[in-house]
Design a protein that fits this description.
Elements (H helix, E strand, L loop, with lengths): L1 E10 L3 H12 L4 E4 L15 E3 L8 E2 H13 L4 E3 L3 E5 L4 E6 L2 E12 L3 E3 L2 H4 L9 E3 H9 L8 E5 L3 H12 L3 E6 L9 H8 L6 E2 L2 E8 L3 E8 L12 E4 L2 E4 L3 E3 L2 H6 L23 E3 L10 H21 L9 E5 L3 E5 L2 E2 L4 E8 L3 E10 L2 E5 L3 E3 L5 E6 H4 L5 E8 L1
Parallel strand pairs: 1-2, 1-8, 2-5, 8-19, 10-17, 11-12, 11-17, 12-13, 20-28
Antiparallel strand pairs: 3-4, 6-7, 7-8, 9-18, 14-15, 15-16, 20-22, 21-23, 23-27, 24-25, 24-26, 24-28
Helix pairs in contact: 1-2, 1-8, 4-5, 5-6
Amino acid sequence: MKQLSFDVVVIGGGPAGMAAALSAQEQGAKVAIVERNAQLGGILLQCIHSGFGLKYFKQELTGPEYAQRFIDRLAKTDVQVFLSSAVLNLTPDKKVTLSNENGVFVLDAKAVVLAMGCRERTRGEIKIPGDRCAGVLTAGLAQHYINIDNECPGHRFVILGSGDIGLIMARRLSLEGMKVAGVYEIMPYPNGLYRNIKNCLEDFGIPLHLSTTVTRVIGKRRVTAVEVSRVDEKLHPIPGTEKVIPCDTLLLSVGLIPENELCLKAGVKINPRTNGALVDNDLQTNVPGIFSCGNVLHVHDLADNVTAESERAGASAARFAREGKLPAEWTPITVKCEMPMGYTVPTCIRTRKRAPIFFRVRRPLENYRIKVQSGDDVLLLCKPRDYKPSIMENITLPESILKKAGNEITLTMEPA
C-alpha cells in the first residue's frame, strides 16, 4: 500500500476544504485535499443563484463563480488534489486511508482538517407516514436535477420546511414554469433568511403556512397528493385540521446533518446539539492535530462565514504541523450555554487574548441581550436586540473579559 506524507491533509474539497487548504499552504505547509467528487467546489457547483461573496469578496456572485475563485487560487499553488477519492479510514494518529482509480493510499499527516460538509435529512429520518411512492425527494436533490442534469423532477410541488434551500428551490421551480402549491413549516416561525422569504416566496406569490406539517403521503406509483395538518405547541398534529393538497412531488427542506462518520473512527467527540465535533477556539477537536470547520462542524447560513472559519482552521492546522502542538496559554475555559441559546462554537477557549464565539438561538427573540457569567460573576451584558434561529450569531470576548473568567463561562439570553 502506497504511503505519502503531508503536513496537512484536508478532507473535503468544497468551500470549507479549499479555504482551509489555501490558508495552510500560505503558512508554508505541504498540503493535500481529498475530494470524493470528480471536481472541486462541493455543493456550490449546483447553486447557480446569486448572493454569494457579499461579505468575503464584496461582490455578488453565484455559487459556481464563488467556488471558481478558490479553484483558480489552488491551481496556482502546489497543493496536491486527490479527486474521485473516497476516504476509507481516519486514525487518531492522523493516517488517512483513501481509495481511487489508482488504488488504495495512506496519507500520513501531521495535521488533518475535517471539511466534509453535510447532507440533507430524508423522509425516513423525519418519519412521514403514508404511501411509499416516487416523487418524494430532498430540495438539494431537486436542485441538482434541474441545475446540473437539466431534468424536470415534477410539475406541481409541495415543499415541507422553510430552510433556505427549500425557499430558493421554490423560486427556481417557479422560474422554470412549475407550480409550487405552498411551503409548509412545522415551527411557528420561518427557518430561512428573511431575504429568501421575501425574494423567493412573497415576490412569487407562494404561500407560507406556519405551524403546519405533512402528515401523510398519498399515491400509488407516484405522489398524487399530500395531507397537511396544523400542529399544537408541542408540534403534534391537531385532529380535524387535515387538508389534502394535490401535487406530484414533495420536496423536503427539513434540516442538514454534518457528515461526521469519519470523526467517530478517529475518536473525535461529537456535540449532541450540532452533530458536529466539539472544538476549541483554534477549531481543534479533542484529538490533537485534528481540526474541523464549515458545515461538518455546524450548519452555516452563508458560504462567506464558512470561508472565514475554514481559513482559521487551516492556519491552526499548519501551526500544529510546524510546532507539534498548539500550546495552551492559560488553563482552558469551558464554554457552556443555556436556553434559549442553542449551542456555542467553540466549547473550550485556550487563550486569554481574544475569542470569537458563534451561536444560534432556539427560537425568535425580541429585545433580548446576551449575558456572560463565570460562576456568580456577570462578566458582560450586551445591548439588547432581536435574534432569529436562521441567523448564526457571534460575540467576541476581549482579553479584559477572559482574564476575569474562571475555568468555566456560561452564555445565556435574557429579556431587556
